[in-house]
Structure formats: structure tokens, C-alpha cells
Amino acid sequence: MNEVIKRKKQKLQMKKFLCIVFLLCGGILTAQTYKVGDLYVAPDGSKGIVYYVFPGGTGGWIVALNDASTGCGWGVAEDVQALPNQTSTYVQNMLADTAGYANTLAMRNHPYNNTYYAAAKVNFSNGWVLPSPGQLSILFGQLPFITTAIINAGGTALATNDYYWSSAEYSATNAWRIYFGTGSFNNGTKSVNARVRAVRSFAMTPATNNTEFSYSWSTGADTKVITESPTQTTTYTVTVSTPGGYTDTVEQTIVVGEASSSEFTIVNEMSYMWNGITYDQSGDYTQTFVNAMGCDSVVTLHLTISTTIDAVISASADVICEGDAVTLQVVTAGTPSTYEVYPIAVGDILCTDGAIVKPADYASSGKTALGIVFYVDNTGEHGWAVHLHYQHISIMWTTPSSALTDILNLTNYSTSRTAINDFNGYNNTLIIRNVGNEANYPAAFAVDFENGWYIPAAGQLRQLFNEIVEVRASLQIVGGDVLLLDSGHWSSTESAKNYAWEVRDRGTVYRTSKQSNIMLRSIRSF
């Protein structure tokens, strides 16, 4: 036996096994996220349903599963000094009030607060509060999307035939409440009874490190460590895979017998497959889909590819004698490739090329705005966007020159409570256009229907007003027309042959003559 083999045998100290150990660096970051309608368990064990997620995705608000009170007064007829009096008759001036916690704290600290009043009904010590006007109004707007989730979680639906107290004061004798049949604000006497449904804020769970790699050996083993005793020169191969589908394959030849050189090969398969297309370079990619309404839906992928895993096998010996052992250590440097599809959120900007960008990125994107996102469904990829501009500031649903007609195949919604459940604006507009022309149905022909724009249904229009804060901010960024809350806006929802529904005042629905002149703002699906 030559001297090379002898020296290597001494270094191995006559070990009788072959041990391959992986030292893996890096990992995949995972985070707990929530969307509207999800069940959330608070730190105190109480449960609620997510009804609002902050645009930045850092957290949001949840609503309790049950009323804290089915009827109680707001408080004594005395001004709570720590609360500002919201006396404006313009609803939008109150919508910025989302300080339910601070309001509730001020009410509870008032000398005449007691267990008979609204602020004392909530579990304040565990974070539950009496919602502010803004929080309560958003809650009302989300009822179609959360009611089933509340019931499925064992809770009770909010009462749509009653008032709910907010934590905002109107005066020494009155406080603000919302009627959950229509969403309208009312400053009721503090001593009268109204319901209480608590809300609370929540934060998204921080990301945690996940290093769940999988292993596939040429021997059939799937563990990090294997033990082998080769009797002849053998090449061992192992493929390391990440949960995201990235792999690195390395092999090591162990020579049994005469001394010879050993070598290894690294095969890097650093790529990401998205809907049947493989991407192997960093960049922004888009794919176009068709939604149920026949409209284009463009999803953007922001992809970062790490060029290599850089796996190597370090062998304590590359030549052994039969029956001897060798230790090989495989070190994977670097981190696996990462990718992120930024979630589409309310306030994002829909562009003319179909891409959707964040408001903060718009100025540097070089793109041209088309609309503002005001609703995203549970897939996180589809929803509705509002046009940047009004199509008309004063237009009729039906003109006096045409006979008032109950349109066949267009559902009649006789009450505001049923009208707010109509989300079929595209189909409504299509039906109206199919039975007439611009002369007798001017509103339906004032929208750019051929390019996907339509008159929103009452439920869609109310959802738009519900997200007014984020939508207005983005409209200002792109130079769009500000949405006006104190003016009526046509919906495509019909009430009867003489009437259709309009929406104003942050979602209040009114039955209006079709021959009235009011505003028109179109939306589109994406």
C-alpha cells in the first residue's frame, strides 16, 4: 500500500463508517397573514372575525362574534371633556375618526361612567373597544363579506334592523350611532338604548425562520445523515430541495483501492415555475387571466433569483482501502432563491398596461394610471377598481322622452336592505344596454363598456364609499377626481319601473326616480 493511503488512514483513525453530514445555511421566511373573513383568536382567548386589513398589511381590526349588549345607553347627559364633539352634518368629517381605543378610554375614565353604559360593556382590559364612527362604518360596509364567517364561528350576525353605538360624542346630550339597515349616521340621545358590538386591533404574526429542506440520495435514503460501507469505488449523489422548489445536486466519488483523484459536480436548478412558465432570472413578470366577467386580470410577480446554492462536499479522504471509513461534510453556502408576489390591496393603482402598483411606487414606475383598487376578493388577485374620473356630474338613468319600463331580466330590489346585496354591476349594465340606447338609457351608455367599465351595483358602490379614505389618497397621487360623498351616485340596481337606487353619504342607499339628474362614476373588474 502506498504512503498516501497510509497517511490518510492514520488521519481517519481507522473509523469503520462513512458519515455524510449537511450544514445548511439560510431558509425560507414564512409569516401568518390574515384577510377579511378570517377567524382570529386574541391573546386572551376570545375570538373575532377580521373585517379590515391595513393597506400596509401590518394588521387590522376584528369584530367580536356577539353583541356585548343588545340594548344600553351611551352615557349620562354630560359632555365628556376628553372627547371632541363631532357636530358636523357632513358625514365624511367623522370618517377619519378611527380612535376607538382612545375614545373608549375617555368614556370609561369619565366620572359618571358605570356598568349600564356602552363603554363598560366591552372587555377593555383585553383590548376590545367601542368602535369609532370610522371603524363602525367600515364594519357595516363589510357585512356581506363577514356575516357568514361570524355565524360559522359560532357567533351571531349583526342586527340589520337596529342601531349600534359608536364611541364618538355629538354633544352633551347626544352621541353618534349607525343604523345597520342602511348604514346611515344618527346622533341619538345618550339615554336611549342601542346595541354594542366590540372591535379590537390585531397585528400580523412576525415572520419566522423555516429551514425544512428535503434530501434525496442515490441510495434511496431521505435523511440528512447516511452510513455506508462501500466495497468498491462508488459515487454518492444527494439532491437538496427547499420548500419553494429550488434544488442543488452534488455528487462525491469515493475510491476504494489505489489512490486517485476525486471530483464533484454541482448542478444548480435555480428557477421558479408560475402557472406553467419557468423563470430563471430576477425581475418583474406579469400574466394575464380572464375573470368570470370576461375582463382581463393581470397579476404581477416580483421575483428575486439567487444565482447559486454553492454546495460543496469536503471529504477527509478521497481514497480509502476496503473496510476503511471516510467522513464527508457537505456545506451549502448562500440562501435559497426567494420570491414574493406583493398582495394587491385597497388603494393600489391599476395601470393602463394591466399592472397593479403600490401608491408609493407609482411615481417611479413610469406607468399610467387607469383606476384605483377599492375591493380585493379572497383570492388576492381579483377585485374591482374605480375610474379616475366622473363620467358625468349630472345624468339621468332613464330620460323623460322614453316610457318608464320595468326592465325584463333585471332584478327589482324593493328595499335598501336587499339592494346592498346586489354586486352584479357588469351584468346589470349589459342588460340595460341590450334593451335600449343612449337616447333612453343615457347613464348605461356613458360608461366605456367596451373596455370593461360599467355602472356599479348598489353593493359595489357602497363598498367603494366604505374604502373612501384609501381611495381618495390614491386618487390624489394620480390626479383623479375626488369622490364626493354628499352627492348621489347612480347604481345599476333597479327598484321598479320608475325607480333605481343611488348611493351617497358613505354608503346610504336611496330609492330615486330614474329621471333624476345625479353623478355617475364607473368601475371595472380585474
List the helices and strands and how they pair.
Blueprint: H1 3-12, E1 18-24, E2 28-32, E3 39-41, E4 47-53, E5 59-64, E6 69-72, H2 100-109, H3 133-141, H4 143-152, E7 163-169, E8 174-179, E9 184-189, E10 194-196, E11 199-203, E12 205-210, E13 214-217, E14 226-228, E15 234-241, E16 247-256, E17 266-269, E18 272-274, E19 277-279, E20 283-290, E21 296-304, E22 311-315, E23 319-320, E24 327-332, E25 338-340, E26 349-351, E27 356-357, H5 359-365, E28 369-376, E29 383-387, E30 392-395, H6 416-419, H7 425-435, H8 442-446, E31 453-454, H9 458-466, H10 468-478, E32 489-494, E33 499-504, E34 508-513, E35 518-520, E36 523-525
Parallel strand pairs: 1-24, 16-23
Antiparallel strand pairs: 1-14, 2-12, 3-4, 4-5, 5-11, 6-10, 7-8, 8-9, 13-15, 15-16, 16-17, 18-19, 20-21, 21-25, 22-24, 26-27, 26-28, 28-29, 29-36, 30-35, 31-36, 32-33, 33-34
